[in-house]
Amino acid sequence: MATSKNQLEYVVRLRDLTKAGLSKMTRNVKAATTKADAAFKKLNKRMKQAGVVLVAAFSAAAFVGLRMGIQRAREFSKAMGEVNTILGEGAMAIGQASQQVNDLALSLGVPAPEVAAGMYQTLSAGVTDSVEAMTMLKAATELGIAGVSSTKEAVDLLTTSFNAYGLEVTKSGVASMSDMIFKTVQLGKTTIPELSASMGMVLPVAAQLGVTFDEVAAAVASLTLKGLSTSEATTQLNAVFTAFLKKGELANKTFGEGSNLMGAQAIKTKGLQLAMIDLMEATGGSEDALLKLTGRAEGAKAIMSLTADGSKILTAQLEGIRDSAGAAEVAFDKMADTMDRKLSVAMEGIKQGFGSLMGSMLETQTGQTTFEDMTKQASAFKSAIEGIAPLVSMMGLAVGVVMTGVLTIFMAVQSA
Prior knowledge:
The chain has helices at about 1-50, 50-85, 95-110, 110-125, 130-145, 150-165, 170-185, 190-200, 205-210, 215-225, 230-245, 250-255, 265-270, 270-285, 285-295, 295-320, 325-335, 340-365, 370-385, 390-415. By secondary structure, it is mostly helical. The chain is elongated and about 105 Å long.
């Protein structure tokens, strides 16, 4: 009975304390609400008078823009610094190169640092004349947009092709090569990044044999269409070309002098397709005979695949690539008309604007500072920041003590 009475007193006392606490909290909330309401009314009045809302919004946008500008300025400075390391004598000045890269990037909506990386690749590939370099870079950037690749990958593929065949860089020549490359992507199961990574394996020996670029491209498109990856296709073609280049004497011993079945002369006089067809007929289509002649299974498989069914697929691919004039431009125009590309152009303009602004400011601050002086300043920054470590530790300790107390009280209340 006593226990029940004590529990009742405890409940009544708890109720009274709760009511008193809630009453006090209600008064405090009302008072705080009244003060907050008055403060907000006063603030709202001032904001309306001074247009602080717009100022704040503009300030936030400006902060984001300045941050964006600093990042762009640093990225572009680094990319063009790399370009400057390989600019040879007689090449364009770094200032001129920077301006042309920015102009091209803005006109196509591609980030200027990406275009700068493409310029580095262009110069690295030996295209150092300023006019030729910009011709190659512009075509590669457009090909990258049309073929969904980076500018650097498109530059790599174009320059590899031009260098393998010793071609002169002209506007029409670059346009024609871009068309054939894009048509290869369109007709086969491959991409510009994959071609960029693989064509360097096969083009030099193909050029040495006299196999034209369109023949190589048609063969790659045909083999990938039949299920091979781009790297597998170029590996097989490399085996075929190497065999033709080195096995001419073996073919003459096997089929007689003047058979003209293998060797560079067979390719140069008949073309790749007919040379492979003649070889298949001479061996009766035997894989073993082809393997003995080529020396590698990859070569035998490629010849059999490309000449299968009367070589219809290879013929169709070759006709398509030879009729590719304007293909890359058409694809680029379609991509340029998308909302994404238009917004990319606008965004690049914004980034270049803030990048130029912050670049000028940062250059003013760092332009007169040597690398050694900046290193010393960095050390001073580090020491200054490390100097506040004890204060941070004390603050952390204080916060820890407070949180420990709060948790202790909370646990006590929970266990009551």
